[in-house]
Design a protein that fits this description.
Blueprint lengths: L1 E5 L4 H12 L3 E6 L13 E5 L5 H11 L8 E4 L14 H27 L4 E6 L13 H20 L4 E8 L5 H6 L13 H13 L4 E4 L1 H11 L3 H16 L4
Parallel strand pairs: 1-2, 1-4, 2-3, 4-5, 5-6, 6-7
Helix pairs in contact: 1-6, 2-3, 3-4
Organism: Chryseobacterium endalhagicum
Keywords: Membrane, NADP, Oxidoreductase, Transmembrane, Transmembrane helix
InterPro entries: NAD(P)-bd_dom_sf, SDR_fam
Length: 253
């Protein structure tokens, strides 16, 4: 199987790359900084520099990977950007980065994968969203709104690509214990409920893709907690989520 992973140079993306490589698949990964991959001991791993915010850049990396009439069996978009703005200020640069990466980047990855797979009349596309994206209320964070957009975008592509036998799987995880999450929280994850380790996340994600599931939310406890919160009146949800954000920031320097 030929697998291409955008945002595959670190975190969940690189863990997924290792998973498919260990199965004997050919894997291409791309990111803005390929230097994050310190050691490449896999013969079937191809590394490319690409920015998901630039469609030409993603297409160029993908076409290089597919050189020699190689089919694209699976495209996974793991690229994402996060900056907290529920209980504090957010800079224009942080907002622009989230909007560009999470929304434009998602659209670019879908387009690159769609073009590569349409002629094949088969293929699987997966995108990493967030469990927070299942919630819809007025004062949700910009991050939550961008991830909700990812879920909605995936729904649209799923319907559009179904006649071409191309499946779309949306993954909405809770907190996953990655290096990035630890950096954002000064290595203190005490206030991250239902934390999932990376390898467990890989098992869940890869199974969902293999089974061509539409939407997978994990862990289960986080899924039901968020679904329960989402049925509350908007004004009450605004208060609860704001206080949660303040509580999570209380012990930060």
């Amino acid at each position: 199987m030929n697998v291409f992973i955008a945002g595959g140079t670190s975190g969940i993306g690189y863990a997924l790359a290792r998973h498919y490589l260990e199965k004997g698949d050919v894997v291409g990964i791309c990111g803005r900084n390929p230097g994050k991959v310190i050691e490449n001991s896999f013969e079937n791993l191809k590394i490319f520099q690409a920015d998901v915010c630039d469609l030409h850049s993603v297409n160029a990396a993908l076409q290089s990977f597919l050189a020699g009439d190689r089919n694209l069996d699976l495209f996974i978009n793991c690229a994402g950007s996060y900056a907290e703005d529920v209980a504090g200020k957010i800079s224009y640069e942080e907002a622009e980065e989230m909007l560009s990466t999470n929304i434009l980047g998602t659209a670019n990855c879908f387009e690159a994968a769609r073009k590569a797979m349409k002629g094949q009349k088969k293929g699987n596309i997966a995108v990493i969203a967030s469990v927070s994206g299942i919630m819809d209320y007025e004062n949700s964070s910009l991050y939550t709104k961008t991830k909700r957009s990812v879920i909605q975008m995936a729904d649209a592509y799923r319907r559009a690509l179904k006649p071409f036998r191309i499946s779309v799987t949306t993954i909405a995880p809770g907190y996953v214990d990655t290096e990035k999450l630890r950096q954002l929280n000064h290595n203190n994850l005490d206030k991250k409920p239902f934390l999932t380790d990376v390898q467990t996340a890989v098992v869940i994600i890869s199974a969902a893709i293999e089974n061509k599931e539409k939407l997978v939310i994990f862990p289960t406890k986080m899924k039901w907690m968020m679904k329960s919160l989402s049925i509350l009146p908007s004004f009450l949800l605004n208060i609860i989520m704001y206080r949660k954000a303040r509580w999570m920031k209380d012990d930060r320097p």
